[in-house]
Amino acid sequence: MSRLIEFIDTSTRDGNQSLWSATGLTTPDVLAIAPTIDRVGYHALDFTSSTHMAVSVRFHREDPWERIRLVSEAMPNTPLGMITTGMRFISWVPADEGVIRLALRLVARNGLRRLQIADPSNDPERLKRLAAMARAEGLEEVVIGLTYSISEVHTHAYYAERAAALSDCAEMDRLYLKDPGGLLTVDAVRELAPHFLAAAGARTVELHSHCTIGLAPQVYLEGVRAGFQVLHTASGALSRGTSQPEAISTARNLEAAGFSHPLDLEAQELVSKHFHELARVKGLQPGAPREFDAAYYRHQLPGGMVTTTRRMLEELRRPELFDQVLDEVTRVRAEMGYPILVTPVSQFVASQAARNVIDGERWANVSDETVRYFLGHYGDPAAPVDPAVAERVLARPQSGKLRDLKPITLDGARERFGRRISEEELLLRLTMPQEQVDAMVGAKSTPRPAPAARPGRDPLVTLLRELSRRPSISRFSLVKGDETVVWSRAS
Is pLDDT of 450 > 90? Predict the structure, then answer.
């Protein structure tokens, strides 16, 4: 028999974030298609993150906990997952262990069953610590990721070493290679696969990439040949572009290469049509195939950040600076010790590059978050930072205050926010502006809006409806594989 390859659907989280700035989907939009997604046969959904939960509150005045509950109830067969970068929840300010444990406990209590952990520093000890906390707080499946990048220090030996360091993590159920920039080549995935397989042992290994420079579909096929067992894909308008490869075309590629998969592609076609219709109704740009662009290997910004940077410069009426800013990203990243350009560090690097170009003097203005990076609040850099730049940044007036920045804690939270609110609301109030949470709470008394698009009828429902309209047919039987549907007209 051909080897079976599982799929993870990324549409509602990474697809929505990569293509629609995480704001494109409302709870009704997702809930309308959830039962159909549940029939497709995904191992799990990469469903949300604390950033997406904040977007639900800030942009849609929706309760993110309710979204988790409703969708998990509508999808009993498919685990919903969350991705986290580590010791923070919603706010960029670090959170202490009590806050993180509460967040993990609440997402599990409200219906999430899977957690993907991807620390931007790829620190095995930080990853293991969070995995242990996730297991203790009730997450059923813990998936640890190593985030791919290319630099003087991010070599294949670097990834082999860190994968090996995770091999003894008792709480790790799965290991995955996360490629947010879409930088993997077929040669690279072929060389990295043995190290991930060895570290995982009997556990499953997953592969996650983006179509940003057009290589991901081929990388997926070569990754499967090299031993990866699970692929992360997206649906319809939420695939391709800067998102993941499209699910149906990936499945067809696997079939052509002699592999099998568990997906019901008829159900998946309905899912894809739903997201295409949402894009049409909302005026959102669907993902489209991308041409190879070697410039990404120089600046390495994720595709979403490239789009955001271009838009920011257009808003500042300085679009002509775009290429200069991308060149400056390369220089800033080296001076910051070659951080991997994923959230939130990619935002710091891109904004600093833009400041350097617009100001005309490099490092003349620095954000608080960049100061915190140089203070080590986001983990140790992969390589030493430029000492001259570090000296200049840490000499800024705000560095003294930020050096002693205290993490968010639960201490006194009940006294500040009240003892009658739920733990879920308490956590939102602890990490978000009061007026945004107040607006969300106030919106609960208004009727839920209809989804922007409704999925088409299931083909079986359409068939049964047509049978009911034909009085000459009194009984009908449909056999597909081991399943039989019998319809008969009531006498």
Answer: no
* pLDDT tops 80 at residue 482: no
Least Cα distance to 351 among 305, 416, 401 occurs for 305
CB 109 within 8 A of CB 68: no
Evaluate whether residue 432 is within a structural domain.
no
Q: Are residues 272 and 355 in the same domain?
A: no
**134 in a domain, yes or no?**
yes
Mutual orientation of helices 423-431 and 50-60 as an angle, nearest 10°? 90
- For the cut 80, the answer to whether the pLDDT of residue 469 exceeds it is no
Residue 212: name the closest of 184, 238, 233, 241 by CA: 241
DSSP-derived pairing of the beta strands 114-117 and 80-84: parallel
The answer to whether 340 and 382 are in contact (CB under 8 A) is yes
- Domain identity same for 210 and 309: no
What is the tens place of the pLDDT at every residue in 277-298?
Answer: 999 999 999 999 999 988 889 9
In what helix (H) or strand (E) does residue 35 lie, and over which residues does it extend? helix 27-40
Strand partners, 370: none
| 24 and 121 together in one domain | yes
84-98, 145-159, 169-183, 213-227: the lowest-pLDDT one = 84-98
Q: Is 58 helix (H, G, I), strand (E, B) or coil?
A: helix
The total number of structural domains that make up the chain? 2
Domain assignment present for 93: yes
- Amino acid occupying residue 210: H
Q: Which structural domain, as residue segments, surrounds residue 193? A: 6-282
pLDDT at 470 over 90: no
Across the chain, mean pLDDT equals 93
For residue 329, the domain's CATH number is 1.10.472.90
